[in-house]
Design goal:
There is one protein chain. The protein has one domain. It is about 70% helix and about 0% strand. The chain has 12 helices and no strands. The protein is mostly helical and about 280 residues long.
Length: about 280
């Protein structure tokens, strides 16, 4: 039982779980636009997510404790290196213009963790993008939107039309919606200077914002030129589930409430869409 618990914790801490969610959202975009399964894009997104998230999460730890790394961190570093190699393998299969596009989000991820801007912009000593007050959730939503919507569209030579732009807007709002339980949970950890959404408007107002976001996401679907009934049904179901998770979020959550259950919502959405 202890071994299973350790494997599960490694699965979460090594960012495999969040990578599955990003993979699922990318796959959902392919389905929504009638694009056949694109292995190179999907696996690139999966391994790039693991590489990027682990770099952001553990850069500081590895930097300051590289001579005495805990066994679990060493394991994650080795795992991340393997994923980086696999990411490069699938990146090699993508067109050069797509790699140029990917580079933009790679740079954002890099500066999300690495200090590079003047001290006066930051709320702590780290001087990176996630330290800028109120910016973290929107940077994450921007990167997820670029990777899960525009990357599969551009990789398959589809035009950036109105439907794509609406989907990108929906995806940005959906990621922000998914982040709200995390923002509420982290109230007990975050510095007040971070200016997260719950810090600025309170928990109750944050939950109301979540409901409003879900309503906007759903209504935007009807402004598309091509509307799929199965997609609308799956979207409605997953928005209800997500809003419920937001509404039941508390500062003192169970350990896996956000880290597992909220993050698995995109995977559930993909499964629903495939079933329907």
């Amino acid at each position: 039982m202890k071994v299973l618990q350790q494997l599960f914790n490694f699965y979460l801490n090594a960012s495999v779980h969040v990578a599955l969610s990003v993979y699922a959202l990318t796959y959902i975009t392919l389905i929504a636009f009638g694009i056949t399964y694109h292995e190179a894009v999907l696996y690139f997104v999966f391994y790039a997510t693991i590489t990027g998230y682990n770099f952001v999460k553990y850069f500081g730890l590895a930097k300051f404790h590289h001579r005495s790394l805990a066994a679990w961190l060493k394991a994650i570093q080795i795992f991340s290196l393997i994923c980086f190699v696999l990411m490069c393998y699938y990146a090699y299969q993508l067109p050069l213009k797509i790699l140029s596009y990917i580079l933009v989000f790679g740079v954002i991820t890099f500066f999300y963790a690495i200090p590079f801007l003047p001290k006066r912009l930051f709320i702590d000593k780290h001087h990176n993008l996630r330290s800028i007050a109120g910016l973290k959730v929107y940077v994450i939503a921007l990167v997820w939107t670029g990777v899960t919507v525009f990357l599969p569209i551009l990789s398959n030579n589809k035009p950036i039309n109105t439907d794509v732009l609406i989907t990108a807007t929906q995806r940005f709002m959906f990621v922000v919606l998914l982040m709200l339980p995390f923002e509420i949970r982290d109230l007990k950890y975050d510095s007040l200077k971070l200016s997260t959404i719950p810090q600025k408007i309170g928990v109750i107002a944050t939950k109301i914002i979540g409901g409003v976001l879900a309503a906007f996401i759903f209504l935007l679907e009807f402004f598309k030129d091509e509307v799929l009934e199965t997609y609308i049904l799956s979207l409605a179901m997953i928005l209800i589930v997500t809003v419920l998770f937001v509404m039941f979020s508390t500062v003192h959550q169970r350990k896996y409430y956000s880290a597992f259950w909220v993050e698995i919502i995109p995977v559930i959405w993909l499964i629903l869409l495939k079933i329907l």
